[in-house]
Every structure is written in structure tokens, then in C-alpha cells.
Amino acid sequence: MEASLANTGRKPLSILFALSLFVSGCAFQQQEVVSTAADTSTVQHSLTAPASVAQLSDENIQRALKNAYTKFKNDQSGKNADYIKALAEVDSTLYGISVVTADGRIFEIGDVKTKFSIQSISKVFTLAGIMQQTSPAIVQEKIGVNATGLAFNSMIAVETIPERTVNPFVNAGAIASTSLIEAADSAQRWDVIKANMDNFAGRELDLNEQVYQSEVNDNLSNQALSKRLESYGRIYSDPLEATTVYTRQCSVNVTSHDLAVMGSVLANHGVNPITGKRIIDADNTPYILAVMATAGLYDNAGGWLYETGTPAKSGVGGGILAIVPGKLSIGVFSPPLDGYGNSVRGQLAAAYIINELNLNPYDASH
Q: Is 1 a domain residue?
């Protein structure tokens, strides 16, 4: 941080989604831009590519991207999050997919310039921030890393886990993570968090004021979580201040392009492959990816890992971020969610690309 931190769309996945809906210092780099079939699609090439990444040809990535877009474009499953008014009003037909490889190639199609609130995906980058400021061991001790087995906003999880630790991707753990950011006051805490997110994105992100106002005036449940954590000594700044800053970080605007660039930092062992800047230590990235794998998609994290073998994180604003370590990052935007709170088309598209490119790290045949 600058402020203070240096196979195709498989049937089992489709069935799972349907059931869930029912039940519930850089070298000079020359680049060229090449148009693809869709008007909004671009490919950015890097002249230097690590061998493991270079095996992913432009042609194959373009094909998988285009097929994922067309295959699921007309899927009308799911619905926008309606408990946040500003999210319910977002055009549900919006759909964009971006891929950024670990060597900095960019592939995109659809509504990739449309801004939306990052929501829970922001938790990934705040986790990276506190890990950079402290250590993986401190994160494990003060926040926790185990999946709770309960809803992301559960108070019961706080009550029933003896150590009161949860994980950074459920709301209680995310608010505790925000409170753990080293800062003198609320304003500095926000500046540190925002500067970190900007560094991951390689540009200055803006705040979605409409979403922020919609959420900050109706976050009583999160306030209750923060106060309960305080009673157990598991919040590390003023609890209501931490809740407000947490709500603000969730309201930052991103695009699918931004998500893919931000994720590429983790795919590229802590270096942003577009800016060439190291954002976090390489030693920290496996820990972040591990938590994404076990708790990134709310109560369907296991189903996602089962189908793709990759770390991912979702947000109720309709974003999905999936990462194949050492190879690429996928960012998708599609607002309609399944019963778990995950983008339907986002999961389908990202899973299709991963499986079509044979990127499941658990598949020994690749």
C-alpha cells in the first residue's frame, strides 16, 4: 500500500445452480491491441511471457472467452440483490467478461466498461492489506481462516466458535479485518484501504455514492456483529467506525476489467502485470488464495471448488473474480444472483473458461 504499506460448461455446475435457485521496475514492453469478434473485445499482447503462461495461446483464450459469452448471454436465471435498493435497480442484462494473464495480456468481451460496486470482493484486498501490514500468522490468530458453515452474515457463527475467530470473507471477519488495518483514525484507515485497492487495479477507483448511502443507512446487522465482536475482544478499532469504513470499501466502483487486473496481481505472485509494480509480498499470496478457495463463494464455495479447483470470490453487486495461480485471472460482471448470493452467469462463464482451457490444477491429465 502506498499510504502505509509498501470442458465446457459442464452439466453438474449448471444443475447445482438450478437447484440452488430452486431451494432458496519494469523492462520496456511493446504492446499491440487486436480487435476480436465483439466490438468491446480487445486483446493486449506482451512480448515477454513465462513459459507456463505462454502455453495459453491468444487464440485459445479468445475462443473460450467468446464461447462463454455467447453460451450464457441469454441465461435469465437468478435475480438482483433486492435488500440493497441501489443494487436492485441495476440493469440485469449487463454482462461482461475480462481475462488478464499473469504476463499482462488482456482479453475482454461485453459490458467490460460498466461500473458496479465491488461489495464482498473488496474483502480479498483488505485481507491482502492486513497480511502485508502484519503477517499470515496474525491474520489466522486475530481473524481466523476456517469456513463457518453458516451464512455470511451469521451472528450464530460468532457465538458458537469458541475462539470467536471466523474468516475474512464473512461479514464479522471482514469488519474485524477492516478494524485491524493500522491507522490513526477512520479517515486514515479508509485512505489506506482505498490506496491498496487502487494499487491492485492500477488506477484510481471511485466510490459509488448511491450504493454507499443505500447501505450505510441500513447496516444495523453489521453494526450488531461489530459490537458483539467487541464484547469478545475481537474487534481492533471502534466497532461502529470499522463498520462504516467496511461499508465504504464495499461501495467502491469497479468494472470486470478492474476485477481481472486486480486478480492478476494474485495470479502473478503479488506483482501487477500491467503496471509492473509489486503490490504485496509473493509469500502472502498463497494464504490469500487459500481462503478464497475455502470461503470465497459464500455457502457454495465447496461446489465451486469441486467443479473448477480454483480460488474465487463473489460479491452481491454481480461480480465474480476467479484466479488460476501463475496463469490468469477472470473477472465477470452479471447482476442476477443465485440463492447463495453469487452471480449466475458469472459462475457459469468463469467455470466454462477454466474448464475449456484445462486450468483445473487438480486435474493431473493436463
A: no
Q: For residue 328, is pLDDT > 50?
A: yes
Check pLDDT > 80 for residue 176: yes
Q: How far is 194 from 38, CA to CA, in rounded Å?
A: 33
Residue 207 lies in a domain: yes
Per the model's pLDDT, the better-predicted residue between 317 and 32 turns out to be 317
Positive or negative, the Cα torsion across 295, 125, 186, 207?
negative
Look at residue 273 and tell me if it is in a domain.
yes
In a shared domain, residues 115 and 258: yes
CATH number, domain of 243, equals 3.40.710.10
Same domain, 56 and 131: no
- Closest to 249 in 3D by CA, of 293, 274, 212: 212
Beta strands in the chain (DSSP E): 33-35, 42-44, 96-101, 106-110, 116-117, 253-254, 312-314, 319-324, 328-333
Residue 56 lies in a domain: yes
Sequence-distant (≥ 6) Cβ neighbours of residue 83 within 8 angstroms: none
3-state DSSP call for residue 17?
Answer: helix
pTM for this prediction: 0.85
Structural domain for 175, as ranges: 121-250
**Do 261 and 278 belong together in one domain?**
yes
Question: Which three three-digit cell numbers place residue 330?
Answer: 477472470
Give the pLDDT confidence of 212-266 residue by residue, as tens digits: 999 998 888 999 999 999 999 999 999 999 999 999 999 999 999 999 999 999 9
* Cα–Cα distance measured from residue 154 to residue 134, given in angstroms and rounded to the nearest whole number: 27
Q: Which of 219, 240, 220 is nearest to 229 (CA)?
A: 240
Phi and psi of 195, rounded to 5°? Answer: -60, -35
